[in-house]
Amino acid sequence: MTIETRSLSDSEIRSVASLIDRPLVLVGMMGVGKSTIGRKLAHLLGLPFRDADDEIEKAAQLSVAEIFERFGEEHFRDGERRVIARLLDGGPSVIATGGGAFVQPDTRALIHAKGIAVWLDSDVATLVERVGRKDSRPLLRGGDPKEIVARLKAERESAYAEAPIKVMSDAGPHGEAVNRILQAIAAWL
Ligand code: S3P
Fold first, then answer.
1. Residue 97's closest CA among 55, 59, 52, 39?
2. Exposed, middle or buried, 158 (CB in 10 Å: 0-12/13-18/19+)?
3. pLDDT tens digits along 42-100
4. Which of 89, 122, 164, 178 has the greatest CB tally within 10 Å of its CB?
5. Residue 189 and residue 185: Cα distance in Å, rounded?
6. For residue range 113-148, what is the model confidence (pLDDT) as tens digits?
7. Distance, CA 81 to ligand 1 centroid (Å)?
8. Which residue among 25, 35, 51, 53 has the greatest number of ligand 1 atoms within 8 angstroms of its CB, and so is best to mutate?
9. Best residue for ligand 1 mutational test, from 25, 26, 27, 30 (most atoms within 8 Å of Cβ)
């Protein structure tokens, strides 16, 4: 569902927070702002924030780029699924996932079973502008970022669309997306 922006009052936020009994799992393309938005959302709701990619890096003692380089994407996806399974068992929280996580059928099934998936979406131009700020994403190396982002978005959209909640995170401030998420969760719960 897509909803217009409105700021929730503190008491509305508290009442949404009191209803959340599972992790909120942010899914969607790289560059959409899952980590930044997730951190703000968790703070407002008084929930812990977990970044799945950071947890994978901690567990492996390697960066995501190094895991791809040394062991390949399949190995990364395996570790990603195990880390997300652990985070999903940790009680209510906000979890930001890497862009490919919800596209993997097993990981998606785990998220459906134990969390509430929120798809953050943006247009390709906004994603490309945002991913251009960092050079840490292995899937963008060795190609034209605009072409790769557009292709991955088209390939992945049907998986992301399985999330029960969809929120646009366009070029505006991330605070607006946070408000939209709160409102969408309030309407959905
Ligand atoms: C990936 C996105 C990255 C990271 C890895 C693979 C993807 O996370 O998990 O580079 O497949 O889209 P972000 O979405 O946080 O950039």
1. 52
2. exposed
3. 999 999 999 999 999 999 999 999 999 999 999 999 999 999 999 999 999 999 999 99
4. 178
5. 6
6. 999 999 999 999 999 999 987 778 999 988 899 999
7. 13
8. 53
9. 30
